[in-house]
């Protein structure tokens, strides 16, 4: 039931599209040039799983998971 903030930062030219996923579900997605936060206001056990941030532009794709 506590809040969790997850941050993701990426740089690129052109600026990448940043996306947060849980499994195959997109939770948040924005074209930003700095970072994208995912705020989970009240974390419950059913929200357990792997969260991934993906940065993508025409030159490639990079991701980190937790």
UniProtKB/TrEMBL annotation:
<keyword id="KW-0325">Glycoprotein</keyword>
<dbReference type="InterPro" id="IPR052598">
    <property type="entry name" value="IgSF_CEA-related"/>
</dbReference>
<dbReference type="Pfam" id="PF13927">
    <property type="entry name" value="Ig_3"/>
</dbReference>
<dbReference type="InterPro" id="IPR003598">
    <property type="entry name" value="Ig_sub2"/>
</dbReference>
<keyword id="KW-0393">Immunoglobulin domain</keyword>
<dbReference type="InterPro" id="IPR013783">
    <property type="entry name" value="Ig-like_fold"/>
</dbReference>
<feature type="domain" description="Ig-like">
    <location>
        <begin position="1"/>
        <end position="66"/>
    </location>
</feature>
<keyword id="KW-1015">Disulfide bond</keyword>
<protein>
    <submittedName>
        <fullName>SMP protein</fullName>
    </submittedName>
</protein>
<dbReference type="InterPro" id="IPR036179">
    <property type="entry name" value="Ig-like_dom_sf"/>
</dbReference>
<dbReference type="InterPro" id="IPR007110">
    <property type="entry name" value="Ig-like_dom"/>
</dbReference>
<keyword id="KW-0732">Signal</keyword>
